[in-house]
Write a structure and sequence with these properties.
The structure is a single chain. By secondary structure, the protein is mainly alpha-helical. The protein has six helices and no strands. Helices cover 55% and strands 0% of the residues. α1 packs across α5.
């Protein structure tokens, strides 16, 4: 069975799992494409640490993403997948443990 999830639902779940507040702002596709094109031009001029490019903008704007891994999982003998909610919580934990994101838990926030 394939379970789908709308992007806004997924983003809200990610924010909740990370214990952060997020505001979703809808950006017209042409704005994102122009920003991606501009970022790609800046990269061509030597700015390497830009998180956006025209290719990334196209990926973001893709209407549907489908990932089917059943046959690969079976052939490799991998365990059952982690559910989205548990997986996103573990991902937040990993990023915080690795020091890539600040730890905002009550014992570390000084609250």
């Amino acid at each position: 069975a394939v379970d789908g999830m709308a992007m806004d639902v997924m983003l809200r779940k990610i924010a909740v799992a990370g214990g952060v507040r997020a505001r979703l702002v809808r950006i017209p596709p042409w704005v994102l494409q122009m920003a991606g094109t501009g970022a790609s031009a800046l990269r061509a001029l030597g700015m390497r640490r830009l998180p956006l490019s025209r290719d990334k903008a196209d990926e973001i704007l893709a209407r549907h993403w489908v990932l089917e891994t059943f046959s690969s999982k079976e052939k490799l003998g991998l365990p059952d997948p982690t559910g989205f909610d548990a997986g996103v919580r573990r991902t937040w934990e990993w990023y915080r443990e690795a020091g890539w994101l600040p730890d905002i838990s009550p014992e570390h926030s000084g609250a």
